[in-house]
């Protein structure tokens, strides 16, 4: 009995550590914020230079034009730095303004290509920056303490998680998977059956968006590579989304894997537990993966 309790405590601690280390990504998030700050500084310098060069010409058109442009540029620069400061507060665990998240995403979208360019100068690869963005985004998700019923959660994975030689068509309905253990799809379908969330395998961003539109979830857990997660998280906004990176032992987009312990730990954090009375009354979570039709369950 004591051994069982110790084991449960160990498992609980391990899951917590997995989520904190990988989802929060403590060492990674500083990289993204640092590069974004540097990019913002460069952009601020560029705007000041544009303003300075443009002043004589603008003043010749209208004497108040340099002041107006200067005011607009100042507001843009202040907003950018406030957005970064807000992000630093959020990732440091201090009070922050979550209402600015949409603006922050738009700001990131606008500046990310420049951050990638600057990163290249410092030998930082795009993938590392994207991974760092995901760590920041996941941390914001956790800070909001988002929890939803299982049937309001959508889990979506890319097609490359399926074994390339598998003949079963799982993009239409993941329950076509025979759960042979050849890839992680079988384990995810089993988890969807057990926990009751919607589970889909998408062949691309368009299909993923259609699935989101069709299932109308309140939160999304996406499993993908850095690039797809970064664009996906921004695409589904304002829907809260958490990303889990896939594992690519065979290179990108081919027979990829996912850490199932991490997925389960993350799901347990997001999904609201079913109330006991409800479960007994047969009103518990039903299998939602792929198709809403329970008859399709194997
Ligand atoms: S687990 Fe499912 S999807 Fe993966 S190889 Fe087996 S049958 Fe195919």
Layout of helices and strands, plus pairs?
Blueprint: H1 2-24, H2 26-61, H3 65-91, H4 101-121, H5 126-143, E1 153-158, H6 185-195, E2 198-202, H7 205-215, E3 219-224, H8 226-236, E4 241-245, H9 260-270, H10 276-280
Parallel strand pairs: 1-2, 1-3, 3-4
Helix pairs in contact: 1-9, 2-3, 2-4, 2-5, 3-4, 5-8
Bound molecules: iron/sulfur cluster (SF4).
What's the short story on this structure?
With 298 residues, the protein is of the alpha/beta class. It contains ten helices and four strands, in the order αααααβαβαβαβαα.
Task: Explain what the structure shows.
This protein has 298 residues and is an alpha/beta fold. It has two domains: 24-140; 146-296, no CATH class. It has helices at residues 2-24, 26-61, 65-91, 101-121, 126-143, 185-195, 205-215, 226-236, 260-270, 276-280; strands spanning 153-158, 198-202, 219-224, 241-245. α2 runs antiparallel to α3 (65-91) and α2 packs across α5 (126-143). Residues 162-163, 166, 168, 170, 177-183, 185-186 line the site of iron/sulfur cluster.
